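Work Package 3 committed the consortium to producing structural models of liganded targets before the mid-term review. Because experimental data for this complex are still outstanding, the team generated a predictive model from sequence and the ligand definition alone, so that downstream docking and mutagenesis planning could proceed in parallel. The input record is reproduced below exactly as it was submitted to the modelling pipeline, together with the SMILES string for flavin-adenine dinucleotide.
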Amino acid sequence: MATNWVPASVIENRPLTDRHFALIFDAELMPFKAGQFARLQIEAMDDDGELKKFANPYSLINAPGEMPAEVYFNIVPGGKVSNGLAALEPGDTFEIAQPCVGFFVLSQVPDVKTLWMMSTGTGVGPFLSMLKTDEAWERFEKIVLVHAVPYAKEFCYSDLINRFVEEHPEQFQFIPVVSREEHDGALKGRIPALIENGEIEERAGLSINKYDSHVMLCGNSGMLKDTKAILKERGMERHLNHKPGHVSAEQYW
Ligand SMILES: Cc1cc2nc3c(=O)[nH]c(=O)nc-3n(C[C@H](O)[C@H](O)[C@H](O)COP(=O)(O)OP(=O)(O)OC[C@H]3O[C@@H](n4cnc5c(N)ncnc54)[C@H](O)[C@@H]3O)c2cc1C
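The resulting structure, written out as tokens with the ligand in place, is given here.
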């Protein structure tokens, strides 16, 4: 099936750190579910100096029905699309594939007491969209968002996350994790190790178990692989439509 590319117009491309951006744009988006992604396409020179189109998937962090649209991305050294996106200025255009796609959505998560959202870097994006929906707050008694970054300055969406904390103080907890420096209030290290040594559960005052929990993982392959292995030791299996489990994952790279 041919990809349906629709034009997108940049409203703002806000630098959040020296390599992270909030790309805010207008486009005629078809209805989508929080957590889904779309391919973004830019024009850039290929290695032979020819202008070509390059595309990669990016999660929307705006909620369904919320406009303008927003993508949270980081520059990957030498990467065509991320560098192309970083160079966009207000008024510039790019293309977005429609409809948005993907199964990393709340409707795919079974009913449980505690929903754990665990992310590295820009992988927090789909969770921000989900947390903007009523479904998240109506379905789960407890929601814990764990976000791991190398340096604390990369907690780029603290204001929004603090708003969730203020609006849902009994239901929602945010656990920041920093790997490469000490940071007040954050756990130090990597998510898999902090599950294994119990620090994440101790901070949340909740346990991660196959009886009342579902874990959603989003981010780099190392975190996903190691976390899945630790959860498997607890009898927590990958969730499939035909075989309900306890772990869902979206791998960015
Ligand atoms: C479903 C899905 C959703 C995604 N959503 C987002 C998103 O919301 N925000 C976002 O920033 N990225 C997201 N990504 C990653 C994104 O699609 C690109 O892979 C990334 O931006 C690099 O693209 P590029 O063309 O610049 O580099 P490429 O030439 O495509 O990649 C160069 C190399 O960098 C690796 N790489 C990819 N991403 C990273 C990274 N973040 N850090 C370090 N190395 C990386 C790739 O594995 C590859 O080896 C998502 C990926 C998937 C599969």
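Reviewers should note the following from the model. The mean pLDDT is 97. These observations will guide the Year 2 experiments.
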